């Protein structure tokens, strides 16, 4: 689904419409980086193994420092990566001069010596003349005139064994957004304050049955004027279904690795697992399972995927792009690591359950895994150093369940990690 709100690429002065839009309406607002100024090593290790299960995590120095590119860094995203990865060299690029200037203020405030900025379109990123271990491009590709060209440009500077995290809008969950985008286009609504005030007043009258109603009450995309403008008045955006996104990744010379949060796309997680269709969906090819779950849920508003270069086999533990295979005989030596947003709830439980495990980052309320007393003990024993075998002889199936529910990531290196293993 594509809204009618993108008829041109340039304004009457020859400036790209997206560059002009974000210079006037910078979004998202700069993050409060004080809250993430002292990241815990275990959190950094979990983030590392989400992307590279088989690559040892360690603090780096000198030429071995991790190289991160934040492509379309907005007002603070590159600064967030720099402050949470002090052992990495971070580069942020964006077309918005306003976003770059707000980043410079964050550099000065937080003394971010490891952050470098460039006002540069993604399509021209090869001009940096360097490669990156991790490229982060979230909420940007869907605003480009040609997202495939942009993604191919990013793929061309991916270092061997590198990974690319990308987020694009999802079609079905944003159906209401595109209805109101076209409504605004027909009325000629702009981004001046009078038009925004009138739009806000009008949106208050939308009925609860409208497809946009849930987003109006739950999404930060409607929290202030700049957010409202970004969601409903952006001059160019598009969305992707699961098959369309997987095709985009393949056409760009990349290989899909996993969803950043995979449980919403899996037939054994959440309410779908309790239906007769769960087993039927599980018999489909994996990509078809993802597509079916997007249709079943209907409310996914964005897809965030981790991809690797298609030519990178990922077979060696040094590069480690390959995702865990639970049939691997070495699985007992893997180390589960709890994700920071995973919690165990022990109140208001159904009969027979000792706990409810959930990831607070999920927006889907059905993604809860109920556990018995023995499983709850195993979950609490997961500390990043114990192996699957250390948790007990029957732990592997439980660990796989936790992994698929986004409650843990896995260090599949096997042997003891380097000094970065300490938490």
TrEMBL record:
InterPro entries on file: Methyltransf_12, SAM-dependent_MTases_sf
GO biological process, one term: methylation
Alphabetized CDD domains for the sequence: AdoMet_MTases
Record-annotated Methyltransferase type domain positions: 70-164
GO MF, any single term: methyltransferase activity
Pfam families: Methyltransf_12
Keywords: Methyltransferase, Transferase
Protein name, UniProt field: Class I SAM-dependent methyltransferase
Origin species: Microlunatus elymi
Organism phylogeny: Bacteria, Bacillati, Actinomycetota, Actinomycetes, Propionibacteriales
